[in-house]
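Lab notebook, bench 4. The sequencing result for the construct came back, and we need a structural model before the next group meeting so we can plan mutations. Quick request posted to the team channel:

Model the 3D structure of this chain.
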Amino acid sequence: MKTLKLLITLSVMLISNAQEKSVRFEENSYATEGLTSMEEGIITSNMVNGVITAFKNNVILLETFLDDWEPEHKIMGMNYHERSQRVFFVSPNYMNGSILSFDARHIHRMNSIMFKDRFIKVHIIDAGTLNDLKSNTTHLYVSNSSPFDGKVLGFEIEELLEQQSREVLPEDVLISEIDFANGLYIDNENLLVVSTLEKVVYKINLENKSKEVFLTLENGWPDDIIRVNSSYVISDNENGRLYITDHSGKRLRTVKITTESGLRVTPANLIYHKGRVYMSNLWKANTVNVLYSDITGNDINDYRHGIYSIKAHDLLYK
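Done. Here's the predicted structure in token form:
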């Protein structure tokens, strides 16, 4: 009983000691799940109606390129791969969970029918509830957010681009038994994986696939993780906070995020782009609502509007 009271007290202290910082409004998007960046700007995806938007006003209508694409097909994580100049993205309910990509070189002409046969590629199908994905030069890593059978998949990008679409193979599974595997970050030879239900960030050694705890949170809905300079930033879209840690996972500060007018922001996906940390204002996360929506197909989640940003220096040091 004393231990429980101490944990509750510590949790309250951590929450109450949060700094408050306002963020700059960037774009009036809705239910934004995926964020990635190119030199020209930010590319986003909509979790509810399956739309991709590049640089605020270029809208990709996937039904232009995929005959069986419907608006209710969700788009989750996105990642621009510089070497191939393609944007990879995942859908948990198109072809029973799929990894797709499009050619970013033609992004300003993406709805032209002349690109129908070569603009979009479907790489992996029947992969389940895919959520986030990140790439380095040679590999693509994808999280599966099954509540009780989560895992991380790994693929060689060159093989994905050369192959016809296929199902997941046993050798594609990098590591399993991560409940609701969510945000990913590749950190040299390690992969950081956010487990939303466990409220833990794991560090996976990509060489030997060993797993250790990098950070444990007391509550909330941890979603994504990025590295900015020597610090790490973790989003929590239940409490509307960002957690800042050092290279070892030691908590340095907790930051409550609000708009310039004082409204609460619920940060989900994060990217670091040209000196600023960008965040999607996805939803006021609630575990019961999320699981009910996924199981029944009746979406009762409380989605929000907007993409916001803050100078990285102000977030980390002021």
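The chain has a mean pLDDT of 89.
Will bring this to the meeting.
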